[in-house]
Amino acid sequence: MAPSHTVRILDGNNFVVSEATGDIEATPTEPTGLFSIDTRFLSKWVLTVNGERLNALSYDDLQYYESRFFLVPGLATHYVDAKLSIIRERAVGGSFREDITILNHDEKAVDLEIRMDAGCDFADLFEVKDEILNKKGEIYCEAEPDRLRLGYRRGNFKRETIISSSAPARYDRNGFAYSIHLEPNEQWDTRIDVQTLALGPGGRDLRLGLQTHGTERLALQHDLEEWIAKAPTVNSEHDSLSATYRKCIVDLAALRFSPLSLGGQTLPAAGLPWFMTMFGRDSILTCLQTLPFTPQLSATTLRILAALQGTRFDDFREEDPGRILHEMRYGESAAFEEQPHSPYYGAVDSTPLFVVLLDEYEQWSGDGALVKELEQECRRAFKWIDDYADLVGNGYIWYERRNTDTGLENQCWKDSWDSISYRDGTLPPFPRATCEVQGYAYDAKMRGARLAREFWDDPAYADQLEREAAALKERFNRDWWVEDGGYYALALDPDGRQCDVLSSNIGHLLWSGIVDDDRAEQIANHLVGPRLFTGWGVRTLAEGEVRYNPIGYHNGTVWPFDTSFCAWGLRRYGFAEEAAMIANGILDAARYFDGRLPEAFGGYPREQTKFPVEYPTACSPQAWSTGAPLLLLRTMLGLEPHEGHLAVEPRLPVGMGRIEVLDIPGRWGRVDAFARGRVDLHSLAG
Fold first, then answer.
1. CB half-sphere exposure, 522, CA atoms < 13 A
2. Does residue 278 carry a pLDDT above 90?
3. Sign of the alpha-carbon torsion through 628, 634, 640, 645
4. CA gyration radius for the chain?
5. Helix (H, G, I), strand (E, B) or coil at 395
6. How far is Cα 135 from Cα 153, in angstroms, rounded to an integer?
7. What's the CA gap between 14 and 290, in Å, rounded?
8. Which string of DSSP letters, residue by residue, matches 146-166?
9. Sheet strands side by side (includes 66-73)
10. What pLDDT score does 684 carry?
11. Taking 80 as the threshold, does the pLDDT of residue 585 lie above it?
């Protein structure tokens, strides 16, 4: 991830990451630059005045898609009253625009040489992520009288960056320059347009450049205002809750991604910088988190995932009939099948979660037409669960990658190589079955039964799904329960041996409903106990386990999205105070990140740190971290659709004060919800 001092602006799949001066000097291993459709279109963008680099006084984060930098010549250590000031204002919205203003504060006229060094390595995002830049095509540069054209071609795969300026400039292979004369108190301005050209297989034009920049900026501003206006209003006596909520709504707007096949409709991209594209699991879980606030994301997500549902057996892409995709990419490595993401299907949870989202969306929206439209896709998803995912033949969902070169080893949400282990720290063989995926399958079948009975006119199929769900629940509670720990195992190996560590996955089991009622209290106690709960959130792996590491990616960090589903699970089983306790921790943590929760943060105990410890490579903003405060709001207020109405049963932490959520959309029209804190967290913690 880019260092924390970088400045980021984004609009869906298009984003710019730069230094605090606005300059970009990317190396093959750093995700700085202008990126679009998984390609870096600018890797060098350095402004100088009379050959001198500039020093940043400050920058303004104007909107998610624009920023402004205030600069002076010279290094900060040598600063004296500057006679020049430079303002760089930039925006991304399809592509990239930068306005440069130079002001002469001197009592005499000045002659200046202004230069922008520009270059591009056209790195595929996977090349940057894997720290390997190995271009197999041709990089070219053409300095034309009125523009600079930087390009890359490899067969019929072509990417170009086209740079032009409103003020006359001299273009060369390494950038462009201006010679200007400024009288006292005079200013000079220019607008630089950077457009991108992308040709896909067969020469298909995927051009994403800005067409009329003033119009584009106004359109982005209008779109953001409309997006905010459609979302419910949250007012709170809690110091930062309303600000965190607004930040989340704006970040969701920023993360909206329009796949090339959708004609402008959007779904949430997973996160900046590595995952600004469509992910099955991430998009579905984000939609579930945000349904009461941005329900329009769900229908788009369901439709595009249904359209790309697997239809054949393909070992390279790990595709099966009925399987829902994991990830879709548009860069060079996917185009030339050096990576399988065109699309890649190596996830075992996105398929049952697809059905879960469809049912949850219908309960909120009343959109029965979409349920009927996607009936066959749901039936194919269940067939995948029963026929293709059960690699061992014992009724569970398993995974073992078929693409052994570039496929994912772990195909659950904890997808790092060492995230699944036995209690002694060793790693199990493949295939593996993780516990939360079985819960998702149970939930999908119970929800699918409702859809079959109420919308597909197939009560026999509904009965079948309910029988299968009941059998799965009975089997699961027998095979996965760790008797000497009082919790469910993280996973099973192919011989049925338990990966018997204590993990946050047990919270997902509560959310799914697969936990036997007489065991729910033990699970709740673990989730708020000191081994899992840090005071800020729930650790991915419990303190005391051999592989526990408070800054291990899936082995001890806190993931806000994960914690939010744990809270939702606690609430489902009636542990409202415990859910409020967890929600309070994450919302407190959000204050230290200015309302923008990162992908993950350190799992250190709260009493050990005055603030949550940043995880060094966490994505930010990230969709399901952005969705976490929204799900926690739903959980604290007890918002649930019930028989066509919105039920509200609030349970807030002490100190939260009054919360009101106004204009909650759903099949009921728009309604308001109000709550006041009343839970004694201190007695719970004790």
1. 14
2. no
3. negative
4. 26
5. coil
6. 10
7. 23
8. TEEEEEEEETTEEEEEEEEES
9. 54-63, 66-73, 84-92, 96-104, 187-199, 157-165, 147-154, 138-144
10. 33
11. yes
Per-residue pLDDT of 360-409, as tens digits, reads 999 999 999 999 999 999 999 999 999 999 999 999 999 999 999 999 99
Global confidence as pTM: 0.92
| CA pair distance 635, 570, nearest whole angstrom | 9
Query: 35: Cβ–Cβ under 8 A, 6 or more apart, which residues?
Result: 14, 15, 16, 17, 41, 125, 273, 276
Amino acid letter for position 503:
S
Residue 3 pLDDT exceeds 60: no
| Unique residue bearing structure tokens 């949250």 | 234
Residue whose structure tokens are 């050209």 = 197
Dihedral, 623, 625, 631, 632 alpha carbons, nearest 10:
-160
Q: How many CB atoms lie within 10 A of CB 298?
A: 27
Q: How much of the chain exceeds pLDDT 70, in percent?
A: 94
Of 11, 22, 17, 19, nearest to 32 by C-alpha is 17
Which tokens in the block code for residue 493? 């190996």
In the chain, what is the straight-line distance between the N-terminal and C-terminal CA atoms, in Å? 38
Q: Where are the beta strands (DSSP E) in 120-156?
A: 138-144, 147-154
Distance, CA of 116 to CA of 174 (rounded, Å): 9
Q: Length of the chain in residues, anyone?
A: 686
Torsion of CA 378, 382, 388, 394, to 10 degrees: 170
CA distances from 249 to 230, 242, 452, 531, 556 (A): 10, 11, 34, 33, 28
Nearest to 541 by CA among 384, 458, 422, 429: 422
User: In the predicted model, what is the mean pLDDT of the chain?
Assistant: 92
Tokens of 402: 């078929």
d(CA 435, CA 397): 9
- 393-404 b/e with 16+ CB inside 10 Å = b? eebbbbbbbbbe
Report in angstroms the alpha-carbon separations of 219 from 186, 190, 210, 227: 32, 22, 12, 12
Q: Tell me the C-alpha distance between 139 and 51, whole Å.
A: 27
Write the single-letter amino acid at 33.
G
How far, in Å, CA of 327 to CA of 312, rounded?
17
Q: State both tokens at 326.
A: 């994991």
Residue 225 carries which side chain, given as an amino acid letter? E
**Cα separation, 598 vs 614, whole angstroms:** 8
Residue reference for tokens 């995700």: 31
pLDDT at res. 205: 59
Three-class SS of 262-321: CCCCCEECCECCCECCCEHHHHHHHHHHHCCCCCHHHHHHHHHHHHCCCCCCECCCCECC
Phi, psi of 306 (to 5 degrees): -65, -40
Peptide bond just before 343 cis, omega within 30 deg: yes
- Bridge-partner residues for 118, per DSSP? 45
Burial (CB count within 10 angstroms: exposed 0-12, middle 13-18, buried 19+), residue 533 = buried
> What distance in Å separates the CA atoms of residue 384 and residue 148, rounded to the nearest whole number?
51
